[in-house]
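Entry 12.
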Amino acid sequence: MFEARPLSNRVEAVRQSHAPDVQVLDCERDFETLNPALAEDLGLVVDALEPASYPAAWLPDDAPTLLARYVSSDLTIGMPGDGSVVWTRQTEPPIVLVKPRVEGSPESFVDFLIAEALVQVDLEVPEHFIEFFAESYRDLDQAVALDPNDTYQVAAALYDGWVGLQTRDVFADWHDEHPELADAWQDAGSRLEGRVSELPRAVARGDTDFADATELACAAIKHAIELPAPFAALDTEAYLDHGPEYAIQWAEKTFDSLEE
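Predicted 3D structure (tokens):
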């Protein structure tokens, strides 16, 4: 199921600089969440497994089943919305997993995704949004006037945006040392710009729902793309400094304005 992935010289340089102890593994099959049996297979390629768990009281009663499983003591790796490359510190050493769905993507873009994961491990940010919001996830659930699955999507997006505020400064410094990775970062951002600028109109017309719009806008933060209102308020030092508290206040104000 898992085997060591050969890394390009530029990605190996990032690994050595940011997370030299991390193993990068290819996965035999695609997944959103590894089932416990497959997750346990990681024990064959790592030194130890240390499942994370969080208080069930952090979750509202109608939280999605997968989220409830994630906070339990089960070894859960990967969640919906995590993308083609995921990482975890629930193993020793930490690992980055590359899913088969990356096949067909430009090599430079896949390299960027792996390098991004290595940078995130180095920053020691929370592994999942539930650790980021903790007990305040219930407050976010109250602020977001959407169903549980859409609330999950908004929470994941807000966490992704907060992480992006930190990683983009690292990416911006790659122009000299890792120009191919910097170019891939910029190219991915350029592909998002038009869609991001159109978000307010797309939401107003009903072409895009709010959860999808939040996901796209927050994904753009790591690319330093200018965001339209109301998402521009997330591209701030205040969000970086105050994290969950700021995100919840943003959600309250945003949904109050949408209801007016």
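Annotation: The chain has a mean pLDDT of 94. Strands lie at 2-4, 23-27, 48-49, 85-88, 91-92, 95-98.
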